[in-house]
Amino acid sequence: MTEQLVLGADIGGTAVKFVVGGAEDPDRYSGEIPTDTSDVLETFVRLAAAVADRLPPGVALAAAGLACAGIVDPVRGYLGRAPNLPGWEESDLAGALREAFGDIHGVFANDVNAALAGEARFGAGRGCRDLVMLALGTGVGGAVMVDGRLVTGTRHGAGEIGHMILDPDGPLCGCGNRGCIEAYAGSRGLLAEARRRAETPNAGPALRELIAARGDGLTTRDLAALALS
Q1: Rounded to whole angstroms, what are the CA distances from 210 to 45, 186, 192, 204?
Q2: Which residue in 6, 114, 124, 126 has its CB near the most CB atoms, within 10 A?
Q3: What is the structure's pLDDT at 41?
């Protein structure tokens, strides 16, 4: 008899992290692949291959839950604006899932909304009916829960504070505007600001040495470690 498991995937602007499991062991198998930000179907095909590599004989997928950065219509499985996935904007996620995985049931959500729902049910938010989440990564996202229900708005963009404008003359954001919170606090913005500051006369030697040593491989973890040292 074939065992039916469920796939959960977190699709970000840099990587797709996934787990496969059941009710008793939700993370039995796990992995990560890089996100192809120019091609949604290619990413889903590579995700299907990575999942298949981890599943033993006698195990199959019954359903998939996909959490994706950007404005997600959970009813249609459709991705609208997605500044950190420029080639994915206005994409049929449900159709790509069917093409890559076959006829399995799919559930779709914005990544931060999904994270907040998970914390409310299983994590730090258990027992709380009013919650706010701020997510920092490639971009900056937010989610709001009021009286136990996610507040998503009529266009599914409620809580997305990353594109609030702090300075209309500030750095260019991936959404096309200038001075968004994400342009400062997203990973790309932080790395760009670190490199800019390293070129100024007042830059400390530690920052200059770090950037010289890491080059294009510089990460926000490197900056955090330097700040804490």
Answers
A1: 37, 20, 14, 10
A2: 114
A3: 96
Strand arrangement, sheet containing 91-92: 72-73, 78-79, 91-92
Quickly list DSSP for 33-83.
EE--TT-HHHHHHHHHHHHHHHPPTTEEEEEEEEEESS-EETTTTEE---T
* Residues recorded for the chain: 229
DSSP conformational letter for 173: P
Q: What confidence tier does 98 reach under pLDDT thresholds 50, 70, 90?
A: very high
If phi over 0 gives left and psi between -120 and 50 gives alpha, with beta otherwise, what is residue 195?
A: alpha
Six-digit token string for 2: 């074939």
> Tell me, what's the pLDDT at 144?
98
CB 66 within 8 A of CB 9: yes
Give the CA distances from residue 190 to residues 86, 140, 178, 187, 215, in Å, rounded to whole numbers and listed in that order: 20, 12, 15, 5, 15
In order, the DSSP letters of 106-171 are EEEEEHHHHHHHHHHHHSTTTT-SSEEEEEESSSEEEEEEETTEE---TTS-TT-GGG-BS-TTSP
Q: At CA 203, angle to CA 198 and CA 208, rounded to 5?
A: 50
pTM passes above 0.85: yes
CB atoms within 10 A of CB 229: 7
> Which of 185, 207, 209 shows the shortest CA–CA distance to 197?
207
pLDDT at 122 over 80: yes
